[in-house]
Amino acid sequence: MPDSAIVERSGIGGVIGSNGGSSGGHENGRGGELGASHTPQRAYVTGMLIALSGVAMFFMALISAAVVRKGSPSGDWRPLLVSGWLARILWLNTAVLVASSITLLHARSRARASDEAGFRLWWIVTSALGICFLAGQLLAWRQLVSAGLYLATNPSSSFFYLITAAHGVHLAGGIIALFVVVFRPARRMAQGTAVEIASMYWHAMDAIWIFLFFFLISGGRS
Amino acid sequence: MSTSPHPVYTPPQAPSGFWRRYIFSTDHKVIGLQYYFLALAAVTVGMVLSLLMRYHLAWPRGYVPFVQSGIMRPEQYLALMTMHGTIMVFFVLTTAPLGAFGNYFLPIQIGAPDMAFPRLNMMSFWLTLVAFGCMLSAFAVQGGAPISGWTAYPPLSGLGSITGPGEGLGQTMWIVSIGIFCFASLLASINFISTTIEMRAPGMHLMRMPLTVWAWFVTAVMSLLAFGALLAALIMLILDRSAGTSFFIPYGLVVNGELQVGRSGGWPLLWEHLFWFFGHPEVYIAILPGMGITSHIISNFSRKPVFGYRAMAGTLCAIGFLGFLLWGHHMFVSGMNPYSSLAFSALTLSIGVPSAVKTFNWLGTMWGGKIHFDTPMLFSIGFVSFFVTGGLSGIFLAQPALDNMLHATYYVVAHFHLVMAVAAIFGIFSATYYWFPKMFGRMMNETLGKVHFWLTFVGAYCIFMPMHFVGLYGGIRRYSDFTGADYLAALQPLHVFMTIAAFATASAQLIFFYNFFKSLASGAKAPENPWRATTLEWAIASPPPLDNFAGNFPHVFRGPYEYSVPGAREDFSPQHLPPSDVAGAAEGAPSA
């Protein structure tokens, strides 16, 4: 697909409003995969919203398990104090991830302004910030390990590793999606739709992290 | 049939190669059939397992085939029980009603050429198949299949092979298999929901959707919300098994004389909460499609509109919503706070209201109708019968004081088999007999179908009615041998009766298999609309073309159950015919 398609189909009006599923532009669907050529573009957006509610339920289950486990009658929960270097790293990571959402917004506004090069630049910056975030999470794990806190040390550390790992895996999927959108355009989906749903996923992972972050750091205070 | 504005549409051709056409297909109809045959294979395995168990219960010292030394040990019985429950709940009751029939007919009934995401759909099926293979291979690993039941309660399931044979690699295979199954179900539910929201034909308002579509839609929403919670719980369980964490494993536990060190005080109750937060919605995931199919078929064969269509759609949503609020009634005897038992009890009883509305509406639909007792109708009436019988014992079990006595007895086994298993299976049979002509272009044999119905109907009651009495008498579930305790040994004749009934009912299924495959090969040619029905799947060829509508995508002009409309030309008014084609004098030329 020509790069200009990104510009043409980006933006709210061009994507959500477009019902271009059965129109021209992507008759690349191979024989026998007719449904895809009939799938309206907004179905991808709807599908992503639905998928995100499933992801949200998964994290809700982890969070409620942590809350219930903390109140377990055995009283073995030793709060994991997020302080010192660990706190600094986590705050920095959170700032990096929030920044990545902002660069993502900027990339899309570049696309709306028909600035193809700008779009690609800021889109790749977003992915790079995501990789920085994951590296930072690994650093946070290193801090825990150096403090003698392993996966099985205490339920609080178990949940810390589990929740950050689950979020990290989801975010890694997001990074792959960002790269796919920019380097290997979809055959069935309009490029603007791909940009739209990748952005939705990215912002959602950002929002979920902010929630998880405050959950994890408040765990030490109560 | 009217045509929607698709100016330059050429109907697509199916890929010519065998593999792309039938194996790695993205066509929702092929995928639906793949799910169906997967469920057929799974139900055969599950039924053989149940027969082995029933045989052992009746004659505990009898020779059992497929078992080392011919005498079944208690742990082998538990392995059979675990695998029977798991295979039936996940690979039959979840895949057949939603995966098979939902996949095949949801897009057609809303007038779409396929699911919204065909390749995702293919991936869902293949993951489900991998999960099934993984589950079956648990039989073949060291220690054999797991023994912790389909609920996999820790600490039994969380400690590895120390807790018993099958709890080593077998239990790990179980967890991995169900994890893959969860992921496949999540992908499938995203597809079902998106398709229903975005792919409906012009004129197909929500309140014109067939109740089958409503049921699949609500079921998909439930799977989306439930399977994520199970996935989270499975990850924690596998960490407890392999990484030494203490999510569910208590402190100071002694298993087989060995102190389990390094556990800090986990909480088995936490697993029960997470599991049943999935597990109870799962019950409705199994039964709701059956409710939709029953509503659909009862209306069709009574030649009357569904009584209270809006109430039927509303109660599906109500059951779906309430289904998430009452998981605690599985845990009345778990040591949970008794006040929360009270809340769960009240919520559980409240689900009787939408259930009763549905039952009365089914009866109301039949009331005064010109009922045709064809096989699909018989199985739908059977569904109502089992749903009522099984549902009534639920009212008893929903009360903590009674449940304290009845929990973990055969009363519970009888209850959930009637309401969840047999009723759902009757829904599947009903749908099979009803849609077979559409799926394969041939009719099934009616006489054999009726014989199959009566033998199965009577047989299932013969198996499960006496089971209530065994439970009331204190017959404990999951025990492999009752002859050791005097008060239970007195019930042995009932066990023998139930076992004979089970073998007879299972034999009756051979009639179904014969009818199914014989009709597949040489049944009478099916017309487009053998049941004189109104919904969109009956407006197209049997079997349907690749894009379902051969390019003539329908407009929808009316609701799905317009039977015996006064003044109409026929006693059914198909959804896709414009008003001029259904109204008025009977002399008019027949429409498309």
What does this structure look like?
The complex is a heterodimer of chains A (222) and B (592). Chain A is an all-alpha fold. Chain A has one domain (4-218): Cytochrome c oxidase, subunit III, four-helix bundle (Four Helix Bundle (Hemerythrin (Met), subunit A), Up-down Bundle). Chain A contains 8 helices and no strands. In chain A, α4 (41-70) runs antiparallel to α7 (155-183), α5 (84-112) packs antiparallel against α6 and α5 packs antiparallel against α8 (191-218). The longest helix of chain A has 31 residues, at 116-146. The radius of gyration of chain A is 20 Å and the shape is elongated. Residues 1-36 of chain A have low confidence and may be disordered. A two-stranded antiparallel ribbon of chain B has the order 1-2. With 592 residues, chain B is an all-alpha fold. Chain B has 17 helices and 2 strands. The radius of gyration of chain B is 24 Å and the shape is globular. Chain B has a single domain (22-251, 266-580), classed as Cytochrome c oxidase-like, subunit I domain (Cytochrome C Oxidase, Chain A), CATH 1.20.210. The longest helix of chain B has 36 residues, at 74-109. In chain B, 61% of the residues lie in helices and 1% in strands. In chain B, α4 runs antiparallel to α5, α7 (268-302) runs parallel beside α10 and α14 (446-472) runs antiparallel to α16. Chain B has helices at 18-23, 28-58, 74-109, 118-137, 169-198, 211-242, 268-302, 309-322, 338-350, 352-366, 375-397, 400-406, 410-440, 446-472, 486-489, 492-522, 579-582, and strands at residues 254-255, 258-259. Chains A and B meet through α3, α4 and α7 of A and α5, α6 and α7 of B.
Chart the SSEs and their pairings.
The complex is a heterodimer of chains A (222) and B (592).
Chain A (H helix, E strand, L loop, with lengths): L3 H6 L2 H4 L18 H5 L2 H30 L13 H29 L3 H31 L8 H29 L7 H28 L4
Chain B lengths: L17 H6 L4 H31 L15 H36 L8 H20 L31 H30 L12 H32 L11 E2 L2 E2 L8 H35 L6 H14 L15 H13 L1 H15 L8 H23 L2 H7 L3 H31 L5 H27 L13 H4 L2 H31 L56 H4 L10
Helix pairs in contact in B: 2-3, 2-4, 2-16, 3-4, 3-5, 3-6, 3-7, 3-13, 4-5, 5-6, 6-7, 6-8, 7-8, 7-10, 7-11, 7-13, 8-10, 11-13, 11-14, 13-14, 14-16
